[in-house]
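Risk register update: the risk of archive-format incompatibility is retired. Evidence:
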Amino acid sequence: MYEVFENLLKEKNVSSYRVSKDTGVTQTALSNWKTGKSTPTAKTLQKIADYFGVTIDYLMTGKEPEKDWEPKLTEKDEKDMQKELKNLLDQLDSNTGLMFDGEAMDDETKELLKASLEHAVRTARITAKKKYTPKKYRK
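Archived output:
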């Protein structure tokens, strides 16, 4: 664990003395940590992690925790969604004449419906990508 601290010192070009002064962690505490006589408290780890702009996990392991993979929609996905949306709206318009409470929908209501459908199609596509993309392709 102290090795990660030393690497951060080299990377940021600071001394342990500077870290001690800036964070309020005593030189003795850092020395005891280095020799293995003690381990820092969670509060001390947080101060050091904040000083270097890293997480406590990184400070302890040298590795950042894996972030949840969020799929990104490609240009092809966007085109496909627009086609799906157009087909949905065409079907609705041709079959029922898009009526609301027995009256034909005005253009503003149609745009709201289109926005709602687009959101639903986008959410469904992202959910499918999350669920069905194999782990080896998640980057």
